[in-house]
Amino acid sequence: MSQWQTWGAIMLAPYVLVFLAFVLYPVSYGLWLARDPASYVRLFADPIFLRTVVNTIVFLLVAVNLKFLLALWLSGFFVHERVWIRWLSVLFLLPWAVPSIPTIFSIRFMFNPEWGVVNSVIFRLTAQDGPNWLNDPQIGLGLAMLTHIWKSLPFWALILIAGRLSIPREQYEAASVDGASVWQRFKYVTWPSLRTLYLTSTILSMIWTLGDFNSVYLLTGGGPADLTHVLATLGIRYIRLDQVDMAMATIVCAMPLVLPLVYYMMKNLSKSDQQ
Amino acid sequence: MKRIARDAWLYLMAIPILLWTLLPIYHIFLFSISSKDSAFSGALWPAKPTLRNFETIAQQHHFYLHHFWAQIWNSLWIAVAVGLITLFVATCAAFAISRLKVKGGRAVMNLALFTYFIPAAFLAIPMYKAMGIFGLLNSRWSLVLAMVTLAAPYAIWVLKQASDKLPYELDEAARIDGATPLQLFRLVYLPLMTPSLVAIGTYALLLAWNEYLYAYLLLSHERTITLAVALGHFISADDSPWELLMATGLVYALPPAAIYYAFRGYMVSGLTSGAVKA
Predict the structure, then answer these.
(1) Closest residue of A to B235, CA-based?
(2) Number of A–B residue contacts, CB under 8 Å
(3) A172 alpha carbon, distance to own chain's centre
């Protein structure tokens, strides 16, 4: 039987090598670079940092929850059995299927204050100049959140559609016989079956949203005046300024946010793996 | 009557959904068939639609497009390499963990999952530093290896889930017949796993083709960058040629969208079922 174990070790080796060289080594080296307390003092002294932490938390709480409420609502729409709704669902996946760079740049130009289509429509309707969208830190961050939602909404709606389709039909029929209203059907049939999926998906999406560099960087570049950064873009900004210790310190400061979420997901996945 | 009322309600909901989904994409398309003047006029359809932008791209007749063909070739080369290498690494690992039950397989699976959950933009920073130490910066291989690192954990997870479902009697029959592990892998395992392998190969390929951040950090010479990074360069100046940017973006977005829709059946069921298990 040892032949099988030997081959097992050989076939596992490529991934173990990838992991050692490109995950374990870089992460350990990075943490070693971030060992100096002085970098944290400098990081907290950087006025951008505090603003970035607030932005990141707002981004996580508002964008992710809004996205999931929308996804929940849309999944209820897309489970209706109509041919045209099936076609619409194919189109609806487009934002997820196309790469982010062209679409985010497209949104960026739509909100260009002088030439963008949004302000030219506002001007035509009201004869007033529209706001200076991306040059306002609050609106800029808001638009970055909308961009993030636009891009990842289809994926999560799809997951929730799959969840809704796995609820046995008889439960809805029984509810109808009992004369349940739309809200009661949601509250007593849909939500109890969907709740776990909804929560796990929200957590997973929060982790991925922490690593969403594109929605902020490609839309606002962190500007104006570095006021719309999130932790992901701030780390890369320090790298570009050749301050690796500051970049690593930024990541270390994000760990209290990341690790509980990752722990929750790992526990959840290994539980479902054993079943 | 009730059904008509509900359908009217559904149509009413469909309009904002359609507008929300298509506006940014239509905007790309509109710009790419417009001349510079009409693109900036704010019209909903250009007075004279034109393919001039695509001609300019194909002939590389613009400062930002001098290396267009080299850059799209880089994107393609890197995406294909990432697809193949990820498939190789992940299939071997999934086979070893799920079928050969190698010692420590479970621990490796957990490490891989942990990697999957590190936000990509955070891993980019130490990865960039390490690639510098390995002397790989500005080589295609740096991006290929980085993307394999990002794609492999999810690939292993999905393939392991799929291979756990194959009956173990197959392995035992093969062992009794005196098959070696490699024969089992080649003759039994790979043919049965084909649908999942197609889905995972496509997943890794698209991930690499679409990647911006890692490409932007790891590659910086005009001739080594991918098309994604080249698109990012367009907006470094104030007077960016937006109509060319959008046309190039359309060329860049079409192949992944086409592949995605071609494999939609595989992708949606294969990838979403592994992504979140309630």
Answers:
(1) A105
(2) 271
(3) 32
Cβ–Cβ < 8 Å for B175, B185: no
Whole-angstrom Cα distance, residue A221 to residue A124? Answer: 29
ipTM over 0.95: no
| Residue B41 phi, psi dihedral angles, 5° rounding | -85, -15
* pLDDT in single tens digits along all 278 residues of chain B: 678 888 898 999 999 999 999 999 999 999 899 887 777 777 778 878 888 888 888 888 887 888 899 999 999 999 999 999 999 999 999 999 999 999 999 999 999 998 998 899 999 999 999 999 999 999 999 999 999 999 999 999 989 988 888 888 888 888 888 888 888 898 888 998 988 898 899 999 999 999 999 999 999 888 889 999 999 988 876 677 888 899 999 999 999 999 888 887 766 665 555 544 43
Dmax (CA) of chain A: 82
Per the structure block, which two tokens stand in for A247? 């970049």
Q: How far apart are CA A166 and CA B249, in angstroms?
A: 38
Cβ of residue A139 closer than 8 Å to a chain B Cβ: no
Residue A196's closest CA among A93, A96, A263, A265? Answer: A265
